[in-house]
Write a structure and sequence with these properties.
CATH class of the largest domain: Alpha Beta
Oligomer: single chain
CATH topology of the largest domain: Rossmann fold
Strand content: 5-15%
CATH superfamily of the largest domain: NAD(P)-binding Rossmann-like Domain
Radius of gyration: 20 Å
Helix content: 40-55%
Shape: globular
Order of helices and strands: HHEHEHEHEHEHEHEHEHHHHHHHH
Length: 364
């Protein structure tokens, strides 16, 4: 076991961005044993469970459907969500949430954002005392406009120092195939962020840390909305100039919004902002990009939802984000146009020419 001084030095180094092998090793040794639970067996929950298991943790994944849990445990596959991917032997699954959470030292949540509150209410008494709770979700609650960490804090009634969020350019299938990528883990407690980041690090997945929870969460939410816009113009048939313009101005909207709520602008220029934005906007693996592309091809909102095998969080987040933006006087013309396309009041072909709401020249 490392000394308190060496562990604090490692945590300080991580906080400054100097994520050295020695610093990670010190914190990882301090955290062992690492029995972790992941709630949610969709593509991202299963992928992150794989990341954790291949980083050395013993992982139990909660799957709502018994047949999914059985396949993961016995065949080391999840063909519904990660076809063709072999899962590590240290990853098991259970359809019993009690079994999944028993003895967990860290708990990771990967359920649809709009069901988070009811899921937390059901497991509140089962989460081990003092275990960090980590949000893998990128959405805001429609009824309240709360970020996922705020819902967790409310429903579990735990100190925010035990809550962390993970975000970044993290397309599930690419990571499941062990393609190298990075993420950021954020918590109000740098020690919690560091312990979680150490657990969620392996040879192909590197987790950095920060303490800007607001910026990290809003980056993950807002990039989904811009990705829907990119999907729309892609579906219409517009080219790279149009998409580059929307990505760039979209990042400006994201930053202005997040900063108005207390985020740091540099967080939006990092993995949770620009990094995630690029990946989500440019990849056909992105559910939000796919949803937008279907809208651009002329499908109605209801038809898009029915065609999607998994939740596209951006679709549910448009309305609450615009309401929050109005509360702070932040102008978000691209997101507003996405809302109009969803409502059927704007022809998808007209989204790109209307990057601003005024014809007067503006500073960039």
């Amino acid at each position: 076991m490392s000394s308190p001084d060496s562990r604090e030095g490692a945590i300080e180094a991580l906080g400054e961005g100097a994520v050295t092998t020695e610093a990670i090793s010190i914190v990882m040794r301090a955290a062992i044993p690492r029995r972790v639970a992941v709630l949610g067996s969709g593509s991202w929950g299963t992928t992150f469970a794989k990341v954790l298991a291949e980083g050395g943790a013993d992982v139990t994944l909660w799957a709502r459907r018994p047949e999914v849990a059985r396949e993961i445990t016995e065949s080391k596959r999840n063909t519904d969500y990660l076809p063709g991917i072999n899962l590590p032997r240290t990853l098991v699954a259970s359809s019993s949430v009690e079994t999944a959470l028993a003895g967990a030292e860290q708990v990771y949540l990967s359920v649809p954002s709009q069901t988070l509150r009811e899921n937390l209410a059901a497991v509140r008494a089962l989460i081990p005392h003092g275990a960090p709770v980590v949000s893998l979700m990128k959405g805001v609650e429609k009824s309240t406009g709360l970020r996922m960490s705020e819902v967790i804090e409310q429903e579990l009634d735990i100190d925010r120092s035990l809550i962390a969020v993970a975000s970044g350019p993290n397309l599930a299938l690419e990571i499941a195939k062990r393609q190298p990528t990075a993420a950021v883990v954020s918590s109000h407690s740098l020690e919690t962020a560091t312990l979680v980041a150490a657990t969620a690090t392996n040879p192909y997945f590197r987790s950095f840390v920060n303490t800007d929870v607001i910026g990290t969460e809003f980056g993950g939410v807002l990039k989904n909305l811009i990705a829907v816009a990119i999907g729309i113009v892609d579906g219409v048939g517009y080219g790279e100039n149009t998409k580059a313009s929307i990505i760039t101005r979209g990042l400006a909207e994201m930053t202005a919004f997040a900063v108005s709520f207390g985020a740091k602008a540099e967080t939006l220029a990092g993995l949770a902002g620009l990094g995630d934005l690029i990946a989500t906007c440019e990849s056909p693996l992105s559910r939000n990009n796919t949803a937008g592309r279907l809208l651009g091809q002329g499908y109605a909102f209801g038809d898009v939802v029915r065609q999607m095998n998994q939740t596209a969080e951006g679709l549910a987040s448009v309305a609450p984000i615009l309401e929050l933006a109005r509360s702070r006087g932040v102008d978000m013309p691209i997101v507003a146009q996405v809302a109009e396309v969803l409502a059927g009041t704007l022809d998808p072909r007209n989204i790109a020419p209307h990057l601003t709401e005024t014809s007067e020249p503006q500073g960039e």
